[in-house]
Write the structure tokens for this entry.
Amino acid sequence: MMENAWLIPLFPLLSFLILLLFGKRLKEASSYVGILLTLASLVYSILVLFERFSEPTFITKFDWLTIGDMHLTAGFEVNQLNALMLFIVSLVSFLVHTYSKGYMQGDERFPVFYAYLGLFTFAMLGLVISPNLLQTYIFWELVGVGSFLLIGFYFYKDEAKAAAKKAFIMTRIGDVGLFIGMILLFWETKSFEYSEIFAAVDAGAVSGTMITLTAILIFIGAVGKSGQFPLHTWLPDAMEGPTPVSALIHAATMVAAGVYLVAALFPLFAASKTALLTIAVIGAFTAIFAASIGLVQTDIKRVLAYSTVSQLGYMMLALGSAGYVAGVFHLMTHAFFKALLFLAAGSVIHAVHTQNIEEMGGLWKKLKLTGPLFLIGTLAISGVPGLSGFFSKDEILVAAWEGGHPILFLLALAAAFMTAFYMFRLFFMVFTGEARGNQQHVHESPANMTYPMILLGVLAIVAGYVNTPWFGTFLGDWLVDGNKALEHHGHAEGSPLIMIAATVVSLAGIYLAYLMYSKRSLKRNWLSGTGDTLHTILTNKYYVDEFYQMTVVAFTKGFSYFLRFIDVFLVGGLVKGVTGIVQGLGAAGSRLQSGQVQTYGAVAFIGLAVLVVIFALTGGYLR
Amino acid sequence: MSLSILQQFNWSAMTPEFIILGVSALLTLLDLFMPKSLDRKILGWIGIAAILAAIVSVLGMVGGPVTSILDNSFRLDSFAMAFKLLLLAGSGLVLFLAVSYKAKDGLEEYHGEFYYLFLSALLGAMIMTSSGDLITLFIGLELLTVSSYILAGIRKYNLESNEAAMKYVINGGISTAITLFGMSYVYGLTGSTNLIEIAGRLSSVSDGQQAYLLTLAFLIVFVGLSFKLAAAPFHMWAPDVYQGAPTPVTAFLSVVSKTAGFVIVLRILLTVFGSAASVGDPSKPILLEMQDYLAFIAGATMIIGNVVALRQSNIKRMFAYSSIAHAGYILVAITSLSSNMFYSIWFYLLAYMLMNLGAFAVIQVVSEKTGSTKIADFAGLYRRSPVLAVVMGILLVSLAGFPGTAGFIGKLNIFIGAFYGTPHYVLASVMIATTVISYFYYFGVMTQMFFRPASDDSKFNLPFGIIVVLIVAVVGSVLFGVMPNIALDFMQNNLDVLADFFS
């Protein structure tokens, strides 16, 4: 099975091509093409995953590009991480394909949507089986294109257009870091291949500073894709895309690509303490930073978006604390419960046609399936004992504590408290109390939307049991099995106190939310009312966007004005002076002769003169 | 030179040139004697057939030994063949555009002239690739340039076209004067016009004063030739001329003429200045000594091209600046002088030819429909013609250098080459930064095509010539992007440019 794993990404690609060419004729039937082909990917991924349990890693490659005397290869690899990712991505993609059939019903560009989904899934699956950095980078960019198209799907909305552009540019800033890091690493190790890079690092062929530098540059790429501080602002804006897209891209797959990249290159990062520390600090800071913004958002999808940013921060913190298993484990459980939450949120939006939680309320009785499913997702993300999120979050907290970062540990604990609080604030405001908005025709979603949610709901409960301190650490052992570089980064045994602390903060957060938003025995503004400084800062997301607008954007604008000034007055003036002389000499005649054309020649002459003068000053007689 | 000596020459080395020359003359006569009522498009098809025949004859010579005739002034080496193939393929595609171009503004009367002037321009470019002498190089250059002047202004009753031709002539004249002035220094110092002889004499010169003069000559010649490349500081003509010239001519100028420019730059720079001792360090050739200057010009070209392109609202002007930027990328390869330089440049020009000509095919179709060349005309293209929009999308993505396309492989070759020997960190960073800038204007067109509503819903019907160009361009851009080793294998197995070049 594994030797043909390259087929897995090709199914969605086929779907993309079929729908691109025949989508207009297929109309609503397009969804079946997409669903069946992603189902094929999913079945194949499951088979590969099970085969990988018993067989060793499979890798194959061939010469792809020769530059001078260097041979770059292409191929694919099925190791534990890749096999797991293939499963997660194809599962979530399949469920989103199914769900969208109901959610996108009636959209004029229904086939186009499915075509884009196919392209994105292809890119993401291609990314996770790449055996080398260059191939990863190529699919990494393709993933960016796919997400650009999907976020901007409602392109007639200005916000969607702006969000797509912002997502593309922000992640590209990160990509530049990744690209430079990749090239530097290539020059140090003469290879893009993971195995050879790790071998070179292991053999000490790369200097410590270079490892740190390249690791941090590559991490910048991950920061962009995974929405880590300070490149996080695109992710909440990306909620302008259709909700199934948010579930696919902004919960389970693309944003997880950054975490995946760090995990895939973990032996490189593990070789530099500085790089690990950077990752841990950025991760922990993002976790609490985004969680605090999540406290005051009133758009259901934006709350989930900030919680995604925050949870991704958790994963980075885990990897940065050398908790390889913890990071990957949380990546998996988060994919399930966050996809569930987004799909459930989509179901809510589908029912009430608004995203503002102030206009919802009392939906528990009306949405008999969505409500409990949303609650499962909320309990899982809040880390309530027994559900998947509890186990993976505990693993991360243990990793942070054992990694010797008590401060980061406390930050993570505080973020866990906030997460429990704002998630239950969301739950209570949407599902309990009185209906606040205009809710006349509220109805439960159709079966093709609820079945994917039910499956995810089950996974959100049970997925944690593959790696628990109580019933064995199967996942952790399997992930590091046979990989020397990861030997010391498997499952970590921590003090039960950590688990108790995590449970206490999570329950405390839930209780506080209950007091404030359900029982209302505490006033909503007892800590900080609307209009207060703290509240204003939080609703404005710490003014990061404004900060960028005022600094980076303004600087770029200013710089361009400056250049224009130089161009118009200095160069233009100089040129005008010269052309003036030429004009005076030449017969003032036709419009063409006295026109700009002389400027062009003059610029060439000035350019030549400048070069000659520089040469005379530096290389010639005048030296 | 008696007849017997003439007969001794291995004239078969010039077969491709003879084919083009012969057909060009034939077209002149046909145009003269054909009844006025007959459509001159037939001449275009004959031209295409001639180019195909010339390509076949070049391919037949591939792998053969270096042949030089006429006192070494015409040499057929791997370099010449590799670039002749590019020039012929590019010209063939441009002719496909030209036969699909709707003649107006006076072109209907001179339609026949267009084709034979076009072939004579191509002949000039081909001679440039094969010349081993400053004189033949210059003659080839002038044949190309003078023909292009007329081509740019061939829409006789169109004001923009006239202006374009006028500006092109004046700037071209200045550049020719500068180039010749620089060449006269070289001749004065060595007493020869033959490139190999010049190289031989210069390698033994170690006089500081001569080296100083030669370096001046280097700067002067390079600035003169930067006109053909549309590189800084001689780039300013390009936007005006590209905008005014008929679209097929613009395509020709931006691809074939530019390729010819790089051919002459490589010939002169590498043979003459690659062996001459420099001022500071006699063991170091001038070319190496002047690397910083080349880097400066390359950087400036990339920055100017990409930054100014941002502000354009006319698609042809935007492509003019984009073509300036691409010249800058190729100059990076010349600056870094890596062992892989010939291949990188050749491949880049190949990729550039495919993506740029394809894009111009789309531009021609769209602008003929709307009668203007505004970028805004592309609004809603996806609605009106999904095929055209997707094709343009692929080509733009390739121009921007996205992975999976030939444009990416081309940039990667050059980028990695910049780290050979002494790494050019600054230049490589400028290349990356300006590439990122280029995304903005390429994606601006994408936004128009995919995300804007169309002003009208009329469909396009694509002429046969356009379809051919689009298929070749898209298939080539994707094929060389996914399997770049095809081009490399062809080059490595058949054309050992580096070994042939100096022999």
